[in-house]
Amino acid sequence: MTVSALPAAESKRLSPRLRKLEDERWLALALLAPTAILLGLFIAYPFFEGVMLSLSSARVGQPGEFVGLKNFHKIWDDSIFRTTVWNTFWYTGVTTVFKLALGLWLAILLNRHFKGKAIIRAFILLPFIIPTVLSTFAWKWMFDPTFSVINWTLFQLGLITTRINWLGDPDLAMTSIIIINIWRGVPFFAITLLAGLQTISPELHEAAAIDGARPWQRFWHVTWPLLMPVTLVVVLFSVIQTFADFQLVYVMTGGGPANATHLFATYAYQLGIGTGLLAEGAAISLAMFPFLFVIVVVQLLYIRRVETR
Questions:
Q1: In 3D, which of 205, 219, 243 has the Cα closest to residue 85?
Q2: Distance (Å, whole) CA 134 – CA 151
Q3: Are the C-beta atoms of residues 182 and 102 closer than 8 Å to each other?
Q4: Is residue 106 domain-resident?
Q5: Is 185 within a domain?
Q6: Collapsing DSSP states into helix, strand and coil, what is residue 62?
Q7: In terms of C-beta density within 10 A (0-12 exposed, 13-18 middle, 19 or more buried), how is residue 252 classed?
Q8: Contact (Cβ atoms closer than 8 angstroms) between residue 124 and residue 110
């Protein structure tokens, strides 16, 4: 009687606000409120302002007026924007395929038992944890036509006789930034897929080996199906990050040469901030949203379908 009466007596002394927290609904609202406020201030509000800006004729120092979809029609007639769309899809597609293939291969190697495994796993993360601008400046020096260590190595091996202008040729410039993005993104794929590999029971592989399955068959029929949900999630995150890439391309080429490496983010920055056409820059940024939204929805539906099998 006494023990059971204490909580009731204490609850009466609580303030009305604290008593509301005993209700799960109010407690959930209280816990979610800080996150909701942060998301509203730093995501929802800037997104809404971007939409309003893209529907106006605003420039630097001029608030502008409402013009509807005029900015979107204008950028669609822009040949540089169409090149930017192609560059972004090509850049995202090629890098994602190579990061997945190399990351999976590296994860399988790291999943084996060997001396110094922990140290090597830690070093693998270095390209991913180094600040993007810092590592990109190092790559920019490596691709420099005059002081390029890559050109020097190729010259010493007798593979070239003249300097290669890696960042001055449109095709080579795109290849260069793709290589850097792959170098930076492979560790993220490798470590994530390694975590997925370690959740697969070795007994499944042993049973498949007893049944006569070869290593490739064990991978294709045992490892890959169980690793598929993790793979789809890491690909989703990589596509979102790569599609909206800015720092790497801006530091390496600034979108050049001759706009050959412009992505959505770099062209929006150049047009909106570099030339002061804020409304058109915002329109280019928002033009990325429908493409990215469709990609994310398709991937999420496929992930859900795989997980419910």
A1: 243
A2: 21
A3: yes
A4: yes
A5: yes
A6: strand
A7: buried
A8: yes
pLDDT for res 100 = 95
Domain contains 89: yes
Return the biggest CA–CA distance within the chain: 95
Q: How confident is the model at residue 248 (pLDDT cuts 50, 70, 90)?
A: very high
Tokens of 100: 């997945």
Distance CA 139, CA 258 (A): 21
d(CA 136, CA 132): 6
Alpha-carbon distance of 188 to 95, in angstroms, equals 13
Residue 289 domain flag? yes
Mean pLDDT of the chain: 85
Q: How far apart are CA 268 and CA 86, in angstroms?
A: 15
71 closest CA partner among 55, 51, 59: 55
Q: How many CB atoms lie within 10 A of CB 121?
A: 14
Q: Structure tokens of 70?
A: 């005029």
* Phi, psi dihedral angles at 22 (to 5 degrees): -70, -20
What total of structural domains would you count in the chain?
Answer: 1
